[in-house]
Design goal:
This protein has about 280 residues and is an alpha/beta fold. The protein contains ten helices and eight strands. It has a single domain, classed as Divalent-metal-dependent TIM barrel enzymes (TIM Barrel, Alpha-Beta Barrel). The longest helix is centred in the middle third of the chain and has 20 residues. The protein binds zinc ion. Zinc ion (ZN) binds next to strand 6.
Length: about 280
Amino acid sequence: MRDFSKDTSALALNTATLGHNLAGYGMDWPVERVIEECALRGFGGIVFWRREIGTRAIEIGNRVRAANMTVAGLCRTPYLVGSQKPKNWKDETLHCIEMAAELGSPTLTIVTGGTEPGTKGVIETQKILAERLAEIAPYAAQRGIKLALEPLNPMFGGNRTCLMTVGDALKVCERVDAPNIGIAVDVYHLWWDSNLAQSCAAAGHRIIGYHLCDWLEDTTDMLLDRGMMGDGVADLKAIRASVEAAGYTGMCEVEIFSQANWWQRDPSEVLDTIVSRYRTIC
Ligand code: ZN
């Protein structure tokens, strides 16, 4: 396993972790400030959300690289399946791919959306998802973008996802059979899976993202109460060992949605805490 105790070059911030302190909210940090503060602390990369980028993708990507970091990812496409899939899902997804390319991001994250109307369970929806991914994968490949399918905790089944495990996501990857479709392993979503090491080994090079946080023993909100690494019960070292044994050598992206706790704090404190936990806990 990689030694993170002195090296933070694989540490990336998912900007959602700063919650309501981004431009126009809370402590009002514009993108430029986020980049500067991450660079100061030795982060290796940043993962943005589309709403922060607007029409400034090229400029922001260049600014990140000028600060000696990389754009490690972009969140995220619209839902591709399920009742909340927008009518223009394909155009919007192509637009996301374009934005990721302009940013210089290697990947674009996909949260799939829930069970397709007119079907039950997830199997049919997974087949439909694979067909839709096959429609967009070639365009993403042309633009140099990998599409990262993110399995979600089963409690998000129904309205947000049809993929609950690495095995689910791998099945869809194999069905699409495009080299630029992979899987993002998120601690929050997969910490409970006692079969995770085997699933990661089976997924191998398909693992193209790793998202860090913790699962709080007494989670109070299934979407917005993620824990800081070390504050919960997820076996972070074991999960990273599984991902790295599968061959993953990429960024470790800290992604903490925490409305009542970390989003209320000074973003400087949040970033400092991330760095120290990353070195000691992850
Ligand atoms: Zn994630």
